Amino acid sequence: MEASRSIPPQIPGYTLIKRLGSGSEADVYLYQQLSPARQVAIKISKNTLDPRAAVRFRSEANFMGQISTHPYILSVYENGVTVNGRGYTVFEYAPGGNYKTFLEHGRLTADQMLTVGIDLASALFTAHRKGIIHRDIKPSNILINAHNMPMLADFGIAGTVYGRPGVGFTIAWAAPEVLAQGGGGNESSDIYSLGATLFAMLIGQSPYEYFYADVLGDSQRQVRAERLKSVILNNPLPKLNRSDVPAEVEWVLRKALSRAPEDRYYSALEFARDMQRVQQALYGRAVQTTVEGVPDYPQNMYAQTSTFDQSAPVAKQHARWVKPLAVTVAAAAAVVVMALAFVTVVMPNMDAASDNSKVQVQNHGAQNHAEDDPDSAITSGSVPSVQDLTGEYTADSKVRFTWVNPSPKDGDSYAWSLVGDSGTDPNAQGTTTESTSIEIDPADGAQTCVQVSLVRADRQMSENPMIACAAKP
After folding, report:
1. Is 337 exposed, middle or buried (0-12, 13-18, 19+ CB in 10 A)?
2. Which CATH architecture has domain 95-304?
3. Topology of 7-93 in CATH?
4. Catalytic annotation, pick one of 56, 86, 129, 135
5. Model confidence over 273-329: pLDDT tens digits?
6. For this UniProt entry, which segments traverse the membrane (predicted)?
7. How far apart are CA 136 and CA 197, in angstroms?
8. Which of 46, 92, 157, 422 is the most exposed place for a label (fewest CB within 10 A)?
9. What pTM was computed for the model?
């Protein structure tokens, strides 16, 4: 069995070149695609696909397919199943490696980091307004393409804001609330992880790993992981302590890394805007954002640098959560080509097997195998699901759904969308409401189905949405 799995499968239309990397669930190979003629990276499951693994492969391709036209998100071309039942996904090949490998011997200047940060924040905002939460942003998941551009990759544990497939995280890059509650994260925790990743591009490691190395020591991996988690939850964010990095740059990163989610940037676009303002103030020019339908630069581009005074407290943001996926889409913004030193390295391990401190909690009754650690899912019941969700057709040809909040709190809202058997795309954009009922037009077919999730004021969401259907009378 092991021997047969180690032999790269033949995939029609592709010729094997070499193996690139391996993770606990999948191997990555470099293939030559015959038509169109190009090199591609193909991620292939190590085992024949059971239902859970099949969902994982399909969801990764579906998630990335929705957003991979963005210039800073790795493109996915197709997926399928080999003749021996192993799933595969065909990706754009990024020959420059990843930033985890780059940081083993290199660092970015503050100006370079801001450029990379604006590009990645643009990509992340694009994902968020489609309802997609990455949940595992870190240097190994930022690839470098042939044009030296950063590419956000590995959506294998991503999920949507409605709690669909996959949750997970890596301790070193996870937000404190994710570590404390064991949840899958949300837009705010993605912003934290991006901030930690950009911080690392200046110092080489995640903030807490770098500055608390003596506390963590060289202990066994699981022990080190628990120590790191404790450090992040109980210790203040250390100062950057890099003399060539201006205070304004550190201020922006520290805001993204605020312990309380409400103190962070409200959106990845807002994060990008502050990086643009700092880059303009310090270096006399700023790269533009790359977000469809959004201006390239903020209206108040030339804000005084005193705005970023580190002595000033970060103002809490009390605005209600409006889903980024409600943003209107318009013309595509221009693509920014940034300059970085090209590094000749091996293709990144797209399954992140080499990262330390990845956490896994198996399903009830499952064995916790160390080799499965990098690809685990972590579930949480920290925000309860709504209860008593029911629907019925009304006399005026509408469908009314009602539900109960089992634990009401100030600022609660509800995210809902049409699903499944209603004949509507289950990945369709959804809507939020502060009411515990909705009245909608019926879907085509014999029934109309919706799913509803409870959303707290701090953007935490119930991991398991409730689903109910109303049958046409």
Report:
1. exposed
2. Orthogonal Bundle (1.10)
3. Phosphorylase Kinase; domain 1 (3.30.200)
4. 135
5. 999 999 999 999 999 999 998 999 998 887 654 345 444 333 333 332 233 333 333
6. 325-347
7. 10
8. 46
9. 0.65
